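Anyone have tokens for LamG-like jellyroll fold domain-containing protein? Sequence:
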Amino acid sequence: MNTVRIFIFLVLTIFAGNLVAGHGDAEKPLQKLFFLDFEKGFSPNAMGENNPLNKNFPELISGVGGSAAFFEGGKVLQYPSPKNLNKEEGTISFWLKPGDEMPKQGPLTLFAENGPKDAGENSFRIELFPNRFIRFSLKDSRDSYIYYHKIGAWKRNEWHHLAITWNVKKGAFIYVDGKAVSTGWMPQWEAKVYDSFFIGAGNANGEEASQVAIDEFTIYNRELTEEEAGKEFLKYGHFSAQILFKDPFIQAGKENILIAELVNPTDHPVVLKNIVCMLTDNKGNELFNAGLGEQSLEKLSHKTLQIPMKTDKSGTFSFSLTYLENNERKRAVTPLHVYESREKAVTQDWSVQMVSHIKAAEKEPIAETGGTLVCEASFGKYREAGSHFNDRFAMDFEVEAVGEPHLAIVTYPDDKPRTMEIMLQHFNGAIDFQSHTGVLTGEEYPVTNATKEFEIVFWPRSKKQAFVFMTAEKKYPAAVKDIKIYKIDKFKVASAESNFRGSVPFRSSGLYYEDPVLFHNFGTGRDLQGFVTATDRLVQYLNSLGQTEFEYPLGWYAGPLYGTSVEPFQPDIDGAQGGQRPHPDGYPAYLINRLGEQNIKFTAGLHIHTLPSLNKYALADWERIDHGEETVININKDGKLWYGYWHGNDPNFNAADPRVMHAVDTIVMEIAERYAKEPAFDGISLVMAKPKLFTFGSLASGYNDSNLQRFQKASGIKIPGYVPGDSSRFRKSYEWLMENAEAKKAWIDWRCQILYEHYAAMGRKLAVYRPDLKLKLNIFVHLMHNQRLADYLNEPPVEVMREMGIDPARYKNEKNIVINHTLVPADLRWKRSHYPPAIPNIDRTIMTAPEMVTSMQGLENVRVTIHDRYWEDAVGREKPMEGLTAMGVSEMVWRASTLNATGFHSLEPYVIALNHLDAASIVKGGYVVGTFGMEKELSEFSKALQALPATKFEDIPSLADPVRVRKKVVDGKLYLYVLNTIPAPAEISLKLKEPGELREPATNEVYAKSKTLNLKLKPYDLRVFVSSSATQDIAGGKVKVDKEWLTSLEKSLTDMENQAEKQEKLFRKHKPYLELAREHWSKKHFSRVYFLLQEGWGEQEATAEK
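Reply: yep, here.
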């Protein structure tokens, strides 16, 4: 291993460890508002009334340090709340020991206020679900729950310490046995005080009694720090060494190294003696055994133990490490998955057999809402749902091979505008998102007045299934003609023979996930075996499409998911406020290996809103902030702490705070340290959407003292309103900066420079691990800016990015940085259906106008993410179809569907990415598989794309629109691509500099040795050619466009001009855009005209009189 690499990671890790364990700034004095240790019965030491309000007292038993109370059914303690409980901030701390005979079900109540249980009522509750979890309910407006899920490992008659903290300004934390284990980071409550609270049960009658012993019950006046929570535990407990297994996936029949991290959290040295490792199968048979000697650990330290091991058996086994610590035998255990290597899949076609054929016009739906109609058309009869939002019907079918791959081919009418969801409904209650998909037809995707086919690959989880067809937008009804179900005997494997091979990588396309829900998408469980199976199914699907890239989250909203050592815990594994996203520790090791076997590269996605390690620096005390103490919490333009916000809002943290930067840097380096050795690992993507902690989000954020001070020092500009100690200095600084153009620009420049320096350094650190690794900055501008972005003739769109803190131009010379642009094709329909009234074509502008990405066009390597909007809907839970309910079937409770255009229209965003940015990599997705219904078109496009070297090509100005031609000499050969940028057929005659052979890699066809290349192009067609001559070149060319399509386009332009003339006053504002359209028409830039006429300015004028 590279010595420099080791040094970088160790420095970061040690610093991260110090951050986790170190002292925060002194808080206000800690005070016990309420303390009950049962030494004097049931009378606490309290700031308020201390007499219990009830008589049905619990039994007193032996506790951790004297007496404790055991709460069986009907027993409770009730006390007055005034002065004993502060709802603004505080901590509830106590010891508990589960009883010998715990109920199987919950909730069992440990603590509850005497208030309503409804959301928004802010009545705190701490509940126990035996062998499952403990949860803290804030009863805020979101009805948030904060979980600790690992009580199943607790032993009988074992005491554990629990501390739950809250602060109305920044959320809640849970500490178990002195360690931070869970967080709730989106507080949205107004503190409500109730007259009393209960300990040990849910009400005065002792119902929902906890069935546990409780001791040392304390309510504090403020949050405990992590250090203080540790001290509370150490009063009666002690810390022990921890063993953390990293990436417990190994290859069968091969010498492997399994990594265990040994952690000493104590303040004294520890020696682990007689360390023995063992691998056993599920019957207890020993497969491997080795003695590992002893290990010494200094106080508050950790070290890595490398364990050589080999086994020829494959499967999931139990790996244990036993050792003596202070003469006590201890054991650490992890599941270990041993897998057999696989060869690169051989090219083959589908092998399927039909198992069901549903003719929708002849078969009645098994369930429906809103009624259906059988319609007649020239292509036959079909069934159509009602035209109201959520009208839907279910067409059922049966399969025999449950769990085996199947292919559904849905034939639907492409005869009118439709916004249609297609969802697979299992009849066994499985929560499953395999087919949450759908179709967009008409309007921006002109209809064919014929039928189209939509393919869906799925793994049925019950014999009886149904596809549900739902109207996802009012007056855009769902419809279906036929459904054919096939069992897949062999998956297609697309050929990779035409992929570029040379001195640079080939271009790639693939899938992208925002949410870590692979198991939901491929019909498996959420355990280790479920992830393994989901990964194998994913790889099969990617191979069938010829996709060569996959991006998946390794860090989600609340931090890492993979089994981190640099953060104290992983909220999204156990269940943070973004949802529970369980993954086996080290899952990237298996995922990356399986992808690599098939030459599919992997990008690690980071989508982080918050991190547990930053909690200690999240100062929320305004008195201290006013006196100059620095908080990592974002201070916004109004001089307020901006924390606890969700999608669509600016970040919770100050992106320029060195502590925030360091926390991100440490995670990035940890990922590189663990996975850079895998050839398939391509790099790390920082997804810079508005709430993520990677940028400022907008100009409304980042007015922290440290930022304002550093800016003034660096720029030499003094902000008149910035006076230390003045509580209004943040607001005044913002107002002055916004009112002074020169200072405002300097402020934006400084922010961009600070983040540039941070990410450029991060990219260079990645290069130490492997020179070809990339840090991908995914600039995801929020749609709230779309109205402003759409007015691109008056303000460069890059200004919105710069206000976030990202200026693409600064990264031009950073070889390890890739700027990643995000397109959102479905925004038009999604906004129109979810947020009426909207000007939906604003969103077409944002996707289609080249001006959106002018700032990125000069960069060497650009990547594009096609982000799918989710049609999220709880209608299945709130208003299920009665037909399903009557059968005892629960309709899928939550939808998160991706709706695609189909046929060649599905390629529109891919063509835009290549046309405007010469993209070297294009990925698509979000919550679910985003490529259903477009497999054939995407496979063909990808095959051509991947024949290109991933390097910047040269434009040919005379061949840019409607057919784009670019060229590049690589490895002594001329590569060129021809891209039809319009949704209509076109022909091109290319003039070559010299006669010579041209080969088309996708078809392996060789073209005649002439100086002319004549091509007929399908709509949105991509063709790639290579000449063995480095002196070959393009001398020019002529393009011919489908006459009927061109006539229609000219009519649209003329109609708009006539309308503008009639409504000159109304149209005056947007006149420059119409003039631009006419200018492009005169230049025969028909693609630009086509998309210009669909932009928001045209939509506004077209509807101005209505």
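Residues 26 and 225 are 10 Å apart (CA to CA).
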